[in-house]
Amino acid sequence: MKLLDILKFSEEYLKKYSFSKPRLESEKIISHVLNLERITLYAYFDMELNLEQKDKIKNYLKAMARNRLTFDELPKEEISLVEEKDCSSENRELLQKSIEYLNKNDVKDSKLDAEYIFAHVLKVKRTMLFMNLRKEITLKEKEEIKDLLYKRAKEKKPLQYLLGEWEFYGLPFKVDERVLIPRADTEILVEQCKFILNEIDNPKVLDIGTGSGAISVTLAKEIPSAMVLGADISTDALEVAVENRKINNVESNLKFIKSDIFSNIKDNDYDMIISNPPYIPKDEYEELMPEVKQHEPQGALTDNGDGYYFYKKISEESSKYLKDKGYLAFEVGYNQAHEVSQFMKKAGFEIIAIVNDYSGIERVVIGRKSGEEDVNKIS
């Protein structure tokens, strides 16, 4: 139940027992339990309460009904039956020490990472963490927090792998060391492709190198009329992608296939081919931060060459699988947009967009296949 539902339930409950201001009393109870100012309650109307919070509210309601007393009139002995020891100070100190530990071990976003780890172990959203620090953290939970902190600090394991999931385009995705971690830059690729696909009736889309399925799943979710096929050479990655398809409930319009680029692709009528291929040059790969180099799959990061192998091959072969006027869309490395554009032009694509990421780097290149009319013009 969400906070607004709990408010309504509590108000109705107190009405039955003839409380003169049931809404006010309900607000007092809930603001007390959630450690929020009463006037701010409705800003959190969509918040999901955990079982412990709901039980506390129920116990207050029963105590008030039993004694026919308002919340403010409840005697201390009644409150003590409901209240537990407030461990906020102790828990905040533990959190602060955890932040300092990560910081000393050169974890860049030490505060954010510590908060995510605590929230994960305590099974609350990170944004709601500080509302849930009153409860005593059990020895088992402390040991789990300690273990995750060690792996983050000493083993340099990425936070996303420690948590086992990450958000992409507002959707949940399972991630582990079989797949790359979905990144915000790729959301730009998805957004640009959405603009185009929304103008096409029942678009047909091919995602080359789907990995976790982040691009495929998101487009299938955002454009229910689309038919999407995600392809990858890695069986391990495809297993993760299938799980993410199920998590996001897009099994009806999304399929996955094992394919080395186009090796197992049969159809030739796609409206769009999308790819975020391995594009880090081998020499740059060797200099990557340990979180990436030691844990994310090498084959999804680098082509073990100059970083252009997949762009060139996909550009050269895409036309056979696209409709006339079909689109080819790439995510590219920080200095690759110009060279990739040249590959695409040589393969018969008109470059219609080069889009910057949030840092102002050219991150997405989109081309449109020349149709028969365009070829005739050239001749």
From TrEMBL:
Signal peptide: none annotated. GO terms for biological process: methylation. Coiled coil: none annotated. It catalyses: L-glutaminyl-[peptide chain release factor] + S-adenosyl-L-methionine = N(5)-methyl-L-glutaminyl-[peptide chain release factor] + S-adenosyl-L-homocysteine + H(+). Substrate binds at N276, P277, P278, Y279. Methylates the class 1 translation termination release factors RF1/PrfA and RF2/PrfB on the glutamine residue of the universally conserved GGQ motif. This is Release factor glutamine methyltransferase. It comes from Cetobacterium somerae ATCC BAA-474. The gene is prmC.
